Amino acid sequence: MIEVKNLVKRYGDHVAVNHLNFTVEEGQIYGFLGPNGAGKSTTMNIITGYLAATEGEVNINGHNILEDPEKAKKCIGYLPEMPPVYMDMTVLEYLKFVAELKKIPKDKIKKQLMEVMSLVKITDMQNRLIRNLSKGYRQRVGLAQAVIGYPPIIILDEPTVGLDPKQIIEIRELIKSLGKKHTVILSSHILSEVSAVCDYVMIISKGELVASDTPENLSKLMIGSNTVECTVKGTRKAVMSALNQIPEIKNVKYEDAEEKGCLKLVIKTGKDKDIREPLFYRMADASCPILSLSSSTMSLEDVFLELTDDSGKAARKLKKEIKKQTAEQEVE
């Protein structure tokens, strides 16, 4: 639905977007994630035609956003970070104005406005002046204007900024409902928001795409292995002898646990290797009961911090690994 090729945006000597490439497929909610100043809003503005790129191109359903802007923009509903509302209009007046701008047939405007206001839950506010609405309701009005015309793609730039916790939850639920009928791109730097709402995550840092996958796959890729932590009752010799019978184990760290006669183990395995069952049987055969057992993966927050930190060799190595895996997936 959206194809971004070699996108570059420069402001003088500053490169805001640096040779960005990605594709957005139909029927998912995408999270466009990055720290402040990473280039998210600039990219959103280029995709929607508000800004011209220095280099590269953006195609929306096969229409180039610069060469064929009218057809391309008909495919997009856009909510900027600051909702584009007119404070002196009522909600209904404003949405009718937007519908006319989007060239909705006059005989369909009333029906569609009622449907859209019902969808975003602002029907009761339709005769209120927008200036008298709370920030949460203004955000809903902004969402309503993006949905009018039922474009296949909805782009939301920081849709929950400045909202209270209750309003954030309501907007998230609204975005999930939009995802049932539209492809949604959600730009944010709030990790919990992306985790709660999105099917797919694109992480951008300093204008470059550093990762693109589902939150679950990113966690697996970043950690590079599965980790099992357990507490086992038994001697070090008996426990290590049992562990040596499990070939999937790559590394074991152990220390004395607080309980007398017990060991605390941190066991690492290769990717996609689940050793919990063989671990149980080997320890049972060795008469070393497992008192606690848990497996762990990296959270999206851990992934984000690793990929947006250029100070360490580990981060650079992980970025190269992710790029390699992404290239392999594209070949497949």
Q: N-to-C SSE series?
A: EEEHEEHEHHHEHEHEEHEHEEHEHH
Q: Give the overall form.
A: elongated
Tally of DSSP helical segments: 12
Q: What does the main sheet amount to? A: 6 strands, mixed
Q: Which structural class is indicated by helix and strand composition?
A: alpha/beta
Helix content: 25-40%
Mean pLDDT: 84
Low-confidence stretches: none
Indicate the radius of gyration in whole angstroms. 25 Å
Straight-line N-to-C gap: 20 Å
In percent, how much strand structure appears in the residues? Answer: 25-35%
Q: How is the quaternary structure best described?
A: single chain
The count of DSSP E runs of length 2 or more, i.e. the number of strands, is 14
Give, in spatial order, the strands making up the sheet with the most strands.
Answer: 6-7-8-3-9-10
Kindly describe this structure.
The chain has 332 residues and is of the alpha/beta class. The chain contains twelve helices and 14 strands. A six-stranded mixed beta sheet has the order 6-7-8-3-9-10, with helices on both faces. Strands 2-1-4-5 form a four-stranded antiparallel beta sheet. The chain has a four-stranded antiparallel beta sheet with strand order 12-13-11-14. A hairpin with a 2-residue loop joins strand 1 and strand 2. Helix 3 (91-101) packs across helix 4 and helix 8 (215-223) crosses helix 11 (300-307). The mean pLDDT is 84.
